[in-house]
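User: Teach me something about this protein's shape.
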Amino acid sequence: MELAIAKEKQYRNIDWCWMIILISFVGFLVENIWNILTSGQIDNRNMHLPFILGYGLAILGVYLLFGLPTDNKGLISLTNSSSTAFQYVAYVLLVTVFICISEIIIGYGVQYFSGVYYWDFSDVPLHITRYTSILTSVAYSITITLFMNYLFDSIMSWFSRFDEKAYKYVGIILITLLAIDLIVSYGTMIANNNHNLIWCIYM
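Assistant: First, the predicted structure itself:
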């Protein structure tokens, strides 16, 4: 069953695989850019591959829960508003809550099973626990809202042009490797009670 934006349009599952792969790679880059700005280094971000699957799955979760900013679908439809401006504000707020809850669950989940503080926002203004903050969550939410509004559908439409077997096979192989990497990397953290640091480069 394909995931549909509306009755007349559907996104193929293989295109979703590629979107998740793309955003997972972007997430890896974003975290390392943040690393450079805050600590002057880049590293493997606890993964073996240069992808952080959580970012790709987050975009899937945002789409399933809220659709696109102007769709008036999912939880956004509960606002029952025809105002585009209000829909944008509601979208940003709902995605912010989604990010906060997700970060707290993942952060404390990793901490519980491995004893590792996965990340620490304690020094960030308006933090809620060590694993999330209103400031960073709003920044991520605005970025996601802009992406979902201006780029998401265009990228998915571009993906839909590909119908070659190689496109499908490579996508399936890559998404499988990302899932395996996530399991292995977290398993390593749990087994060693430490971050899965494989390489680190000081800039």
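Now, about its shape. The longest strand covers residues 3-6. Residues 28-202 form one domain. If you'd like, I can walk through any region in more detail.
User: That's plenty for now, thanks!
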